[in-house]
Design goal:
Elements lengths: L14 H21 L7 E4 L11 H5 L6 E5 L5 H5 L4 E4 L12 E7 L8 H14 E9 L5 E2 L4 E2 L6 H10 L3 H4 L9 H10 L3 E4 L2 E3 L2 E10 L1
Parallel strand pairs: 1-2, 1-4, 2-3, 4-5
Antiparallel strand pairs: 5-10, 6-7, 8-10, 9-10
Length: about 220
């Protein structure tokens, strides 16, 4: 049995949340159409959170076979086990996954890699996702899209990181000014990590207004 791509149309206030939800569904649906996972596939969702807003943990909301999902996160998201019966939550660092090699058919990791910290940790995340799965799908906002989505800052994120982080501190956004919480990626940077790790990949970027807004990589053995 194959899953079908579909849209959920939630009631959201504001253009930003509605657009963010649409992008997430587009990314999910494209993945489903490319991979055609069946109800027998074991799935790892790496990077779930305790946040219960609609666009958080969206994979669980959309995927029709929750009994096949293992959700991993650094925050307590055990409530997902109650909301999606059959799902298993594991409190763990996605950069040090407590699973055997090839434990999953698919590892899904959306908009997480920019939040794990240094380039070393980002590379480790890619290596771990590929180690524990036959296919890994990794998405991240493109640093060279004109708008930085986390801070809603236009263009200044194109500056060297130290200048952009200095701007964030001056404007009271200390959380995102820390590398540990936000470390943006572009194609060249993420592909250098993949190549240096010996990871094979295909890329299928997402376009918004004709510009690459989200980088999407499918890694495989």
């Amino acid at each position: 049995m194959k899953t079908e791509s579909h849209y959920i149309a939630p009631r959201l206030a504001g253009l930003g949340p509605r657009l963010a939800w649409k992008v997430r569904q587009d990314l999910y649906n494209e993945m489903i159409e490319r991979l055609h996972p069946t109800q027998e596939w074991s799935i790892l969702d790496a990077g779930v959170t305790s946040d219960r807003t609609l666009d958080s943990n969206f994979f669980e909301r959309l995927y029709p076979f929750p009994n096949q999902i293992t959700a991993v996160g650094l925050e307590d998201a055990s409530f997902l086990e109650h909301e999606y019966p059959g799902l298993k939550f594991v409190l763990a660092d996605a950069c040090e996954l407590p699973f055997e090699d090839n434990a999953f058919h698919l590892a899904f990791c959306s908009a997480v890699i920019e939040h794990v910290g240094s380039r070393t940790r980002q590379r480790k995340l890619l290596q771990e996702l590929t180690r524990v799965s036959r296919i890994a799908v990794v998405t991240t906002p493109n640093r060279f899209f004109p708008l930085e989505f986390h801070t809603i800052t236009p263009l200044l994120h194109w500056l060297p990181a130290r200048f952009f982080r200095g701007f964030l501190r001056l404007t009271g956004r200390e959380f995102f000014a820390r590398e540990a919480n936000l470390n943006l990626l572009d194609e060249k940077t993420i592909e250098k990590m993949l190549v240096s790790s010996g990871i094979s990949f295909a890329k299928h970027p997402y376009f918004l207004l004709g510009i690459k807004s989200n980088l999407v990589y499918y890694t495989h053995k």
